[in-house]
Structures are given as C-alpha cells and as structure tokens.
C-alpha cells in the first residue's frame, strides 16, 4: 500500500511537467496565423438563359419535373428502374471510385493528426561495468540505469502550414467525392443510353420481322403469278432478293442488340453469359426535362464541383509553400522515471522532467522555396483554367442536347408524314402490279422506300430517348454541390443523393 501511494505521488509530480509543455504548445498554436491567400471561387462565364430552352417548360411549375437522385424514374419504365437500382450495388467502376474517396478521407485524418503532439513511452534497462583504472575513477565499477521515459514532440502550427495542408487534403477528399458522383452519374446514364438503344433495336427487329412476313407473302403471290404465266421469272428472283435482304437486316439488328445487352450486364455487375434482357419494343416519348437556369448548372454538375474543389486545394497549397519562408518551431518536453534499482524506480525522487524548444529557419536554399511557391501558384492558375473550360463545355453539352431534342421532335413529325406517304405509295404500286399496269421493279422500289422510312422513324424515336438521357446527364442528374459540405470526412460511406 505504501509503494502504491508513493507511485501515485510520483505521477502527480510528473503530470505538471508534461502539461506545462503542452500548454505552451497550445498558446503558440492559438497565437499563430495561416499564411497564404484566402480562397474565393474565380468567376466563370455564365449566360443569362439557354438559347435552346424548350417552349413547353414552365418555370412557374417546376416541382413535378424537378430532377432528383433517381432521375431515371421520370421515364416510368419498371424494367429500367430495376436495372438502375443494381448499379449502386454491383457496378465495379463505382466501387473503385468509392475506394478512392475512402483513401482521400483517410488522408484528411492523417494530416489532421499533425494538430496534436506525438507522445511516445518506453522502458529501458542498462547494466554497465566501468573500468576501475579510468581517469577520475570513483571506485564504482558496476552501475544499473533503469528508465521509463515519456517523450513528446510537437510542431506548433504558428504559420498555418498544418491548417493549409489539412485544408488542401479536405478539398482533395471533396474532389474525389465529386468524382465519385460523376462516375455514378455516368454509369447510370450509360445504362439508360444502352437500355433505350436496345429497345430501339427491338422495335427495328419487330419491324423487320413484320416486313419479312409481308415479303414472304409477296414472294408467294409472285411465284403463283409466274406459274400462271402472268409474271416473269425475273419478278420471282427480285421478290426472293427482297425477302433475303430483309432477313439479313433482321439478323444484323439482333447482333447489335446483343452488344447492348452485354454492355448492360457489365454495368450492373453480372457476367454477360448469365444476363438476359427481355425483348420489348420501344414505345415511349421523351419526358419534359426542365433545364433550369444556367447559373444553377455550376452547382448541379459534379464534374464542375470537382474542378472547383481542385482550385481550393491548389489555393491551400500556396499557403503551405509560403509557410516554408518562416521559422519552424518544435517543442520536445520529456519526463519519466530513472533509477538504479527496481525498488525505488517509480518513487517520487526518481522522477525527471525536461522542457525544450527550438526554432529553425532556412537561411539559404538556392531558390528552392521560391520555386516551390511559383509551382504552387502555377498549379492554381492551371486549375482555374480547367474550371472555366469545364464550365464552357458543360453549357455546350446542355445546349447540344436541348437542340437535339427540339430538332429531333420536328424530324419525327416530318418522318411520320414520310412513312404515311411511302406506305400509300407501296399500296398503289401493289395494286398497279396486280392489275398488270406496271413491272415488279416499281413494287420493289416502293418497298425499299417504305422500309427505309419506317426504320428511320424508329431510329429517330431511339435517338430522342438517348438524347433525353444525355440531357439529364449534362444537367447533373439532380445532384447538388451542397452535398459535398454535408458529408463528414469521418463517415463511412456517402449516401447517394435521392437515395
């Protein structure tokens, strides 16, 4: 009991020595200032409105059409919804981007540790025999040295080097989070594009199957006319050619369709050999997609948010480079127990404490610090240029897809009229041929024109759906940059917006 009390008393005497060093370090930290420029987002060219704003969009009633996290639900396609839901679970590109964000988040915690001192503790025991014939020998030839040291090393953040480093690391982590959302948006949009292209090919295959059936009947009719002496063998050969050509086109369409089916399998994390997409012809029109105001695009695109966070990181690294011009302070208090015997090792007389401080400044480095500062400023200028270029590209993508949807709608209406005219022409040609007024060549020409127009109409429908997906992607898919500041760097996994 007496030994325990003595040890507790020794620790009580030791603690003030350690705390005094920590208190001095804290005072230096509080009195410090962060060097380097304050960050503010540079300006970027922002138009007042989109040139291709759709006429049927009413800004006064945007609530029902506002893009949200699950933007694909705007198409009201259960099959598409089910496939899109698998993306967040099984897509490997998304998992890789998530792992990259986890690395960046760990880097923030690693750099943040420099705010605090590093404390080490250990124990050592030494037994030493000295020469009795050494100069100034005291007669003691064998000694024990038992030490329990507690050392602290701390660099006060007087000039803000640590703060700027943490600031840069946090901005880098937010960049990778925005990159993660860019990957998420890209894979969801790619799935939507592949899905609608597969559905468009299903519609083409359905059209060609119907055409093959029609051409088979036409061949049978022509063959009967030939046997009856009304038609020539040339007519039969031409009808046979038309039929086989249509069959070949149907096979080619199905081959293209399998490619998109395999691509969808990869996106949802399944082997292509085990995945099958049920056949369903495209039967939909693009929903109305509100583009919003151009100024909102800067907050809705994750790739723009990523380049903006890169600017913040580069700006903070300028401060890190400037901090190298100032003295580097270091505090190294040490305390512990030292004795020659175990019996009184942890007693009060065995305590020792040392408080030390140092300051080091680089007097001459042949321009190394200036070069580092110039490099940091040039890196910041590069991120500013990349940011402004990314903004310009984003507005271009929105305008491109708005224009595509507007023009494709006009083209669809015109093509529908062309299909009706071609079908009417084909009916007239068939009647003329059956009446013996014209040759079978006129029927073939009408058949070819009608099929080409019908396939073009189907392809335009597919392009309209694809461009609507690309417009949603260009608008950011309902994402918002505010989510970057709400995600804590210590959290395990960021929740996708709208989930």
SSE topology string: HHHEEEHHHHEEEEHHH
Mean pLDDT: 86
Measured between the Cα atoms of the first and last residue, the distance is 61 Å
- CATH-defined superfamily: Outer membrane efflux proteins (OEP)
Q: By helix and strand content, what is the structural category? A: alpha+beta
The level 1 CATH classification is: Mainly Alpha
**Integer count of domains:** 1
Low-confidence stretches: 1-5, 27-31, 60-65, 491-499
How many distinct helices? 10
CATH-defined architecture: Up-down Bundle
What would you say this structure looks like, in words?
- The chain has helices spanning 2-31, 78-90, 92-112, 161-227, 233-267, 297-300, 302-323, 368-434, 440-474, 482-486, and strands spanning 118-121, 124-129, 142-153, 328-331, 334-339, 351-354, 357-360.
- It is elongated, with a radius of gyration of 38 Å.
- Strands 1, 2, 3, 5 and 6 form a five-stranded antiparallel β-sheet that branches. A two-stranded antiparallel ribbon has the order 4-7.
- The longest helix has 67 residues, at 161-227.
- Helix 5 (233-267) runs parallel beside helix 9, helix 7 (302-323) packs antiparallel against helix 8 and helix 8 (368-434) runs antiparallel to helix 9 (440-474).
- The chain has a single domain, classed as Outer membrane efflux proteins (OEP) (Up-down Bundle).
- The chain is an alpha+beta fold and 499 residues long.
């Amino acid at each position: 009991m007496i030994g325990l009390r003595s040890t507790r008393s020794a620790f009580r005497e030791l603690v003030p020595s350690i705390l005094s060093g920590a208190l001095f370090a804290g005072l230096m930290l509080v009195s410090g200032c962060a060097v380097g420029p304050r960050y503010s987002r540079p300006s970027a060219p922002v138009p007042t409105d989109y040139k291709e704003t759709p006429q049927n969009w009413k800004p006064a009633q945007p609530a029902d059409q506002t893009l949200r996290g699950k933007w694909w639900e705007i198409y009201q396609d259960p099959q598409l919804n089910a496939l899109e839901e698998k993306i967040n679970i099984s897509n490997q590109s998304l998992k890789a981007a998530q792992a990259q964000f986890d690395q960046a988040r760990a880097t923030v915690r690693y750099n943040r540790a420099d705010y605090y001192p590093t404390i080490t503790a250990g124990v050592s025991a030494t037994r030493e025999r000295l020469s009795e014939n050494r100069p100034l020998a005291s007669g003691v030839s064998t000694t024990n040295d038992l030490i329990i040291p507690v050392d602290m090393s701390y660099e006060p953040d007087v000039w803000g080097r640590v703060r700027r480093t943490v600031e840069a690391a946090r901005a880098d982590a937010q960049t990778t989070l925005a990159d993660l959302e860019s990957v998420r948006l890209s894979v969801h949009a790619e799935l939507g594009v592949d899905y609608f292209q597969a559905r468009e090919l299903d519609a083409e295959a359905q059209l060609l199957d119907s055409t093959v059936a029609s051409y088979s009947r036409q061949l049978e009719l022509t063959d009967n006319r030939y046997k009856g002496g009304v038609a020539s063998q040339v007519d039969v050969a031409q009808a046979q050619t038309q039929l086989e050509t249509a069959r070949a086109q149907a096979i080619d369409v199905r081959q293209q369709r399998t490619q998109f089916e395999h691509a969808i399998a990869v996106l949802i994390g399944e082997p292509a050999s085990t995945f099958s997409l049920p056949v369903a012809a495209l039967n939909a029109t693009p929903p109305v997609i509100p583009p919003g105001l151009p100024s909102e695009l800067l907050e809705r695109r994750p790739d723009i948010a990523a380049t903006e966070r890169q600017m913040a990181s580069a700006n903070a690294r300028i401060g890190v480079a400037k901090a190298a011009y100032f003295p580097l302070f270091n505090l190294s208090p040490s305390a512990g127990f030292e004795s020659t015997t175990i019996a009184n090792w942890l007693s009060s007389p065995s305590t020792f404490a040392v408080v030390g401080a140092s300051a080091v400044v680089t007097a001459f480095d042949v321009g190394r610090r200036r070069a580092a500062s110039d490099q940091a400023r040039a890196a910041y200028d590069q991120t500013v240029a990349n940011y402004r270029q990314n903004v310009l590209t984003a507005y271009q993508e929105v305008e491109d897809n708005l224009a595509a949807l507007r023009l494709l709608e006009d083209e669809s209406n015109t093509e529908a009229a062309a299909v009706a005219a071609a079908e009417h022409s084909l009916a007239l040609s068939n009647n003329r041929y059956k009446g013996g007024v014209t040759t079978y060549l006129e029927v073939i020409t009408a058949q070819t024109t009608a099929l080409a127009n019908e396939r073009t109409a189907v392809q335009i429908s597919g392009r309209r759906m694809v461009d609507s997906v690309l417009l949603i992607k260009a608008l950011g898919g309902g994402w918002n940059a505010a989510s970057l500041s709400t995600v804590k760097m210590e959290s395990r996994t960021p929740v996708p917006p709208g989930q």
